[in-house]
UniProtKB/TrEMBL annotation:
It comes from Paenibacillus plantiphilus. This is ATPase dynein-related AAA domain-containing protein. It comes from the Bacteria. InterPro entries: ATPase_dyneun-rel_AAA, P-loop_NTPase. Residues 56-101 form the ATPase dynein-related AAA domain. Coiled coil: none annotated. Pfam families: AAA_5 (PF07728). SUPFAM superfamilies: P-loop containing nucleoside triphosphate hydrolases.
Length: 130
């Protein structure tokens, strides 16, 4: 059975080289579990069903029970990049999904108070001078 053919969720999506490199490849030692197949089927079945789309899965189990490898197997089966995020105490959602920062033209920036200029310059991505 070809898992990628069966479970690839967005075959039309063109992955970048970096993303492609993050799609896990199952080692020969990988054992497919009933849970892996059930989760893949449910994700695939609901992928284009709006609010029913499964975006998060909570895996509960003892250390060494195979949670991490199951997450990686989903990457391989669904054809999606695998990455991990380590949580910390004052973590914010912007640490994962990014944040919207102000962008202002250099002409507008020059009209601002020096203190405001300093704040915006610290926030804004570096741009070429023109
Ligand atoms: N489906 C599987 N087939 C083969 N080996 C597995 C499988 N799941 C886990 N393992 C192996 O078991 C060990 C623990 O798995 P891991 O996913 O790290 O557990 P957890 O994240 O739950 O602590 C790892 O060495 C992993 O390679
Ligand atoms: Mg783990």
């Amino acid at each position: 059975m070809n898992f990628q053919e069966q479970y690839a969720v967005s075959p039309a999506r063109q992955l970048t080289e970096i993303e492609q490199g993050l799609v896990w490849k199952k080692p020969a030692s990988h054992k497919v579990s009933e849970e892996e197949l059930r989760i893949c089927n449910e994700i695939k079945r609901n992928w284009n069903r709006g609010e029913m789309k499964i975006a998060n899965i909570l895996l509960e189990g003892d250390a060494g029970s195979g949670k991490t490898q199951l997450a990686k197997a989903l990457s391989a089966n669904l054809g999606l990049p695998y990455t991990k995020v380590t949580c910390f105490a004052d973590m914010d959602k912007s640490d994962i999904i990014g944040a919207i920062l102000p962008v202002i033209s250099s002409v507008q920036l020059e009209k601002l108070e020096p203190s405001e200029q300093a704040v915006l310059q610290a926030l804004m991505p570096r741009q070429g001078s023109h």
